[in-house]
Amino acid sequence: MFWRKKRLNVEFHDQIALSTPLEELSFVVFDTETTGFEIFGSDRLIEIGAVQVKNLVVTKQSFQTYVNPKREIPQIIHQLTGINDEMLDEAPDSFAGIESFFHFIEEQKCTCLVAHCLPFDLSVLKSELNRHDHEAKIPRGVDTLDLLRTLNGYSPKKDLAEYAQEYGTPVFERHRALGDALTAAYLFSALLHRLLDRGCKSWGDLLFMADQHRRQIAMS
């Protein structure tokens, strides 16, 4: 008998025409905080934050939850984030926290997840679900770093706050999930307007732009 993971059912509104105008899309920009970078090892999720971008602007729809990592918070992470063990004692476990986050995504009728350095945040979600013997369908995602590389070329990787300052968008509480999600969301909104000026009008155009620098790397 083959062992199969359970599936966390969540409805994403990603089955849309590529010609759908950007103004009609609902994005959820999110961020995670963890005890470290060894997310497939001993490090764990401790916070999720998210905010909706719709009609090309950041809305008031937001989400935040702490997550109990079932381990101590390293001192360096406490110093960086301000999160301590006591703040997480009564927090839900990672499965319940991710499930609540997915419900928020459903409520926003999300077409696309967005994050700054998206692969890391998606890996955090997947690794935590795996710990609970679950998997989930994750919708198409867009990384703000990919859009920045498409717009700016191969500039050195900067901190999220540096990009926000470069584009004149606000910087919220750093190294906290909701604060970084808000910073990324306002940056993403500014990037969407820049892309519109370059003729990026639709869902299909955005996907093309997001993948453009990867195609350039493959051809070089």
UniProtKB/TrEMBL annotation:
One of its GO terms (biological process) is DNA replication proofreading. One of its GO terms (cellular component) is cytosol. It comes from the Bacteria. The keyword Hydrolase applies. Its EC number is 2.7.7.7. InterPro entries: DnaQ (IPR006054), Ribonucl_H (IPR013520), RNaseH-like_sf (IPR012337), RNaseH_sf (IPR036397). Keywords: Exonuclease, Hydrolase, Nuclease, Nucleotidyltransferase, Transferase. One of its GO terms (molecular function) is 3'-5' exonuclease activity. Pfam families: RNase_T (PF00929). Residues 26-197 form the Exonuclease domain. Coiled coil: none annotated. CDD domains: DEDDh (cd06127). Transmembrane segments: none annotated. This is Exonuclease, DNA polymerase III, epsilon subunit. It comes from Heliorestis convoluta. The gene is dnaQ.
